[in-house]
Structures are given as structure tokens and as C-alpha cells.
Amino acid sequence: MSDKPTFNQQELRARFNPEGSPLRRQQMVMLEMVKVLDSICKKHNIPYFLYGGTLLGAFRHNGFIPWDDDLDVAMMRSDYKRLLKVLPDELPEHIVLQTNDTDRNYFFFVGKLRDKRSFLDEDSFDMVFKERGIFIDIFPLDKLLPWSQRLRLQSPAYNIFRKGDGSNGSMRKIRALTWFNRHVSFPLLRFISRCSGTQALMCDYGIPFHNIYDLQDVFPLTTHDFEGVQLSVPGNSHHMLQTMYGDYTQLPDDLDNVYHHVERLEFYD
């Protein structure tokens, strides 16, 4: 692995997210939200850390990957449950929590903070969600048996949606499946995983990412610069990033085809 990146950060910024561009404005809204989250987590002693491409951006770019249009944090599921309890009373008026409890048609198992002063069209699934502003994702992690995570018990919800295109009938089926997984299937699988003594740290059920992490790579947490702010990161981020991306210090080979989620973006003053 190369010790240092071999690219020009200023050239990347000028190409992908110059100041004032829609993407850069979106990134700044996400940065504001993660700063709010960081403050709340510190106040209530809730450990969290930058995750996925956001963690990669922190160490490769000291901020957002220039073309990135999302922001991810993660925490242990026990801390995630504590966070969901305090967020409604702590969030400013323009930021709202989105979960299965706050949005009846929201069938993802990743918590989101949404900005109410914006609108984005990310993909076809979000057309039925109540909140559709710029968001950051909060991933719950747990010690799970790897085979159990690959059962994909929430996947039928996506197939039902595609066939029904968000109709009332399809959403009733999706809500029923989501309720069953949330209250029956997933708790049972977590119980089986706990009894097994597994040490495989993974995203919680219903989240289609199956990387396995070492708890000792995560804790104790430390901090790293992200867009001029010190945010929480895993203690051995180097090994976690290697696990996810290999030689994470280098850019993708084809920068002309880097992936963008957002199809439509609006800002409301």
C-alpha cells in the first residue's frame, strides 16, 4: 500500500465539488448535521464513528470524497437505541429523525437525520417517505453470525415495491413485512447470535452490507480531521479501511464514472 495519495486535492475539488456548486452545498448541509449529531452524542456520552465512504474521505481527503453525496456514521446497536431516545428532544427544528417509528412508509433499517430545508430525489424507494430532505445515515452495528445476516429477510420489501410502484396495496405488504422482521425475525436472530458467542461485528439486520469488522479495530475511538472539524473515528481506522477498500489511499481508476445517488436536489431558504 502506498503511504501517501498521489493526486492533487485542489484539482479534484475544482472538478467535482467547487464552492457554491449544488454538491458542495449538499455536503455543507450534511456537515452541519453531523456536527449537531457529534454535539448530542458528546452530551449523552454515546460513542459513534465515521463509517464507510465518509471514513475513507476523512483519511484520504480530510473531508468528503470530492464526488460523494452522502455521509455515514455508525455505532453499536445498544448505543443506537439510546441515541434514538434522546434525538427527538435534542434536534433543532430544521433537522428531523427518520426511522420506522417516525415514518410509517420508511422500510429501511438505517436511521437517518433529515434536513427539512431541502429536498432530494435519491432513488425510487424514497418516493413514499414522509421526509425527503438531505440526510446523513446512522448505521447500527452488532455481533452477528455472518450466515444469519445473509438471509436477506428484508429484501422482499424491495421486490414488492418494484412490482407495486409504491401503491397502497404494496405498501401495506411492505409495512407488515417490516413490522414482522423488526419485532420477530431480527430479535430472534440477534438472540441466536448472542448465544453463539460470535465476535463478528457487522451491520445490523435489514442492512445489505456484510463486511465483518474486529471490535478491537473500532475501540477505543479517536478523532480525525473532517472538513476542519475533529470527528470520532475508529481507533484502528487503517485496518478497517483496508478491510473495506484495500489500498484506500489511491483514487478509483475511472473518475469519469464515479457514482452519484442524487437525481434532483433543491434548497429552501
What does this structure look like?
The chain has 269 residues and is α+β, with helices and mostly antiparallel strands. It has a single domain, classed as Beta Polymerase, domain 2, CATH 3.30.460. It contains nine helices and ten strands. The strands form three sheets. Strands 1, 2, 3, 4, 6 and 7 form a six-stranded mixed sheet that branches. Strands 5-10 form a two-stranded antiparallel ribbon. Strand 8 (222-226) and strand 9 (229-233) form a beta hairpin. The longest helix has 29 residues, at 168-196. The chain is globular and about 50 Å long. The mean pLDDT is 93.
The first-level CATH class name: Alpha Beta
Q: Average pLDDT across residues? A: 93
The proportion of strand residues reads 15-25%
Estimated helix fraction = 40-55%
Radius of gyration: 19 Å
Number of strands: 10
Distance between the termini: 45 Å
CATH topology: Beta Polymerase, domain 2
Main sheet, how many strands, which sense, barrel?
A: 6 strands, mixed
- Structural class by helix and strand composition: alpha+beta
Are there runs of 5+ residues with pLDDT below 50, and where? none
User: Globular, elongated, flat, extended or rod-shaped: what is the shape?
Assistant: globular
Instruction: Provide the number of structural domains.
Output: 1
Named CATH architecture = 2-Layer Sandwich
Count of alpha and pi helical runs: 9
> What is the H/E order?
HHEHEHEEEEHHHEHEEHE
Oligomer, anyone?
single chain
